[in-house]
Design a protein that fits this description.
The protein has 583 residues and is α/β, with parallel strands linked by helices. The chain has 21 helices and 17 strands.
Amino acid sequence: MMVAIKSQVQELLKSAGVNIAGDLSVPPNAEMGDLSFACFNIAKEWKINPAEAAKNIKSKLEIVPIANRGSRLAVGRNLELGITERIEVAGPYVNFYLNTSALAKLVLDEIQKQKNNYGENELGKGKKIIIEYPSNNTHKEFHIGHLRNVCIGNVLARLYEKSGYKVYSVNYLNDFGNHVAKCLWGLFKFHKDEKPPANKQKWLGDIYAEASRYLKDHPGAAGEVAEVQKKIEEKDPELWPMFMATRQWSLEKFKEIFKQLGVKHLAVWYEKDLKDQGQKITDELVQKGVAKTGEGGAIIIDLSQYNLDVAMLRKSNGAGLYLTSDLPLAMSKFKKFKVDESIVITGTEQNFYFKQLHKILEIIGFQKKFTHIGYGLVNLKQGKMSSRLGNVILYEDLHDEIYEKLKIESTQRHADWSEKKIDQTAHILTMAALKFDMQKHEAAKNITFDVQESTSFNGFTGPYILYVVARINSILKKSIKSLRSIKSVKFDLLNQPEEKQLLLLLAKYEDVVKSALAEYNPSVITRYCFDLAQQFNDFYNKHSVLNAENKDLVAARLQLSLAVKNVLENALGLLTIDTAEEM
């Protein structure tokens, strides 16, 4: 929508002789106009100073109202300005002030027409993309770091879909690595005769953390773990059944969590199914001279000429590593889905590793488009989490803590609600609090999760955004008859500054979607939700909707409120956050 608005202004500039392509920017405050054109480049072409160029442009665009045209204005006696109301010069800038009524008709008509499709674009039409997330490990906890991965993956998948791409969401489960060996070693060493508790996945995570702490204090036991790893890869008949059983415990819990978080994978790869293929590729790379035997018998690829150090494909004892499996995985994804690009989302601590992986794929001739998106750690207030040390916040524990807190608040606010309604509302608010807070910072930044802050109904939080949507729902519910009776809207009645700022934000939504995708940055969406919700509250606190001066103004403001609700729900949908009818 903003593109259409800018194109009208650019047409005006062309009529003033500005044929150089230039971006229209948004001034820092509304007093300086709604769109601004910098005259530095055109001044060079005209061989005058920028301030003089700005005055020159304005002189060619003197505005003369045309009688009986309402909001329609003209330049001179012929050229119509359309959405532009007036033009001012500020030094080297030409500032354009948009007509609120014309803006309202353009924006609100489009939102009413497009509804859930408003904000979509066709940047990726005909293209296919695969997104791998959250790449979690069996035999380990699903903690809030994994939650952040899921949130980013969900948003990116929806951003790509809204931009016309065919999206394949997949997962790769590391069910065969050293962590599995540690867990099973710890199980046999410390818990062999114990009966597993109800939450078997959590039990496995606790055992892994216990084993890691023990090995830190007793490094001599590392050889025992290495032997377990080797036996797993060899499918030892005594160990394999326990491996498969414990693996299934993890898969069942992950399935439950993914359903709750709205994750839908079209395909899942497992390391146990790729390791043999990776070993074969490693042998082929040695035969071709791409890889070689390093000290102690390990298989390596020297990437130092690319400033990527040395990458290890196989341990000296013959066991594989992450690279051993990631090479066939990368090839399998392109073979199965024939996509244009493969995206993997992991923590930023793996940035260097993925540079090595992508370089090796390039060297061996598998030159496809690979993208790695790294996200920052989720920390406790007392410091960095570590599943090896056991000081992680489990997703389930955090979810339950927030749910109970919000359930109590909902009960206190609505003593007349049924238990079912309170439960449903508390669940929606819990998901909003978790998902929104995980997304409100740039993906690469480390964050510290704060339960009190994330569940607040004021400020930059998910519950606050949902509260604003519920407020609009209340307004619309009280005016159902008025909404149904609206045959036409008098947009010229929408002329207040707060209404204009709402309209400009609504017009900006498509650009927000594009920007969030281009930067792989979901925080662009959360910030937009907050800005739009806050602007609506500002409008609502200063201007009555249902008790406006006349029925026509009520109708116009109802249409504006409905548009805000629609766009907020669209944006929250990108974050996979549902809204509550009332709160």
